[in-house]
Design a protein that fits this description.
285 residues; eight-stranded mixed beta sheet
């Protein structure tokens, strides 16, 4: 069983799809021993490991009914477009507590990633000493350029791991996983385009980190290559992919509570529809 793992793509609010998938897994006693969660996928993955079914709805979607915790008004107040203090301090410690004890004692292994801004290389974390340290790493793992601030981990400036590898299929193969489940948050038609204005702004605001800027400049090509590899492996039966339907789309900065709940439910429904097929994939020799 230890050579089975799941990769969770991020995508800010699109990660509600991952949360729905993983709540279906919990309801059906589908326990994957290795969980590799990128960017906002970490918020879904950590609750799967701690066994807190439905927590993403309570901690991320429902607060949006009374307070818009990201957008321009948040930027004016906090200097970031997402209120990271709310998401990684107030909510998980006080409002909707994250069960770090259950997370730590779980048989599941949790891996998330950041990017070292100085070297431009990904950094993977799987050992967490305490709740504060874990949440700080998750904050860094979710800090997209312009959206969140650089977070220092042990004195090293870090940003969102998805900048380096949004779908780390290569890392999973390095880990020796023989059966890989991948939850992507975009449909089959999507391919990432190079955004030249974005890169120009990145060079201006992150000029202190030239290797990080260079890394992000190649992001679209790396992402599309990962999708090509994934498609090839899926055809060969080497990975099991769960993805949104082609006719369902959600912006990564969606604030409409009903649309977010629908995307979460869609993730749940997709996993329910595929559960027997998934079990057959996991059980085959």
């Amino acid at each position: 069983m230890q050579n089975i793992g799941i990769i969770l793509e991020g995508g800010a609010m699109r990660s509600m799809f991952c949360a729905g998938v993983l709540d279906s897994f919990l309801d059906n006693d589908i326990h994957i021993p290795n969980v590799m969660a990128v960017s906002a996928g970490a918020y879904a993955g950590m609750n799967y490991v701690s066994g807190q079914r439905g927590r993403v709805v309570e901690a991320i979607i429902e607060p949006m009914e009374t307070e818009k915790y990201f957008g321009f008004s948040t930027f004016i107040k906090k200097g970031t477009f997402f209120d990271m203090d709310l998401l990684f301090d107030e909510i998980p410690k006080r409002r909707v507590p994250f069960d770090f004890e259950a997370f730590s004692s779980s048989a599941k292994r949790f891996i998330t990633s950041t990017v070292n801004c100085i070297t431009g290389e990904p950094v993977y974390f799987e050992e967490f000493s305490d709740k504060d340290g874990f949440l700080k790493i998750c904050r860094a793992a979710n800090s997209l350029p312009f959206i969140g601030k650089v977070t220092e981990i042990e004195g090293i400036p870090m940003l969102d791991g998805g900048m380096a590898d949004a779908i780390p299929i290569g890392k999973a193969l390095e880990e020796g996983w023989k059966k890989i489940i991948v939850v992507v948050t975009r449909n089959t038609k999507y391919r990432k385009k190079q955004r030249h204005f974005y890169l120009a702004m990145l060079r201006l605001l992150y000029h202190r980190y030239p290797k990080f800027v260079q890394l992000v400049a190649g992001r679209a090509a790396r992402y599309n290559h990962s999708l090509d590899v994934l498609e090839h492996m899926e055809k060969e039966g080497k990975v099991f992919v769960l993805r949104p339907s082609d006719d369902i789309y959600l912006m990564n900065n969606e604030t409409d509570v009903q649309r977010l709940k629908e995307y979460y439910r869609h993730g749940y429904e997709v996993a329910e529809e595929k559960k027997e097929e998934l079990k057959a994939f996991l059980n085959k020799n």
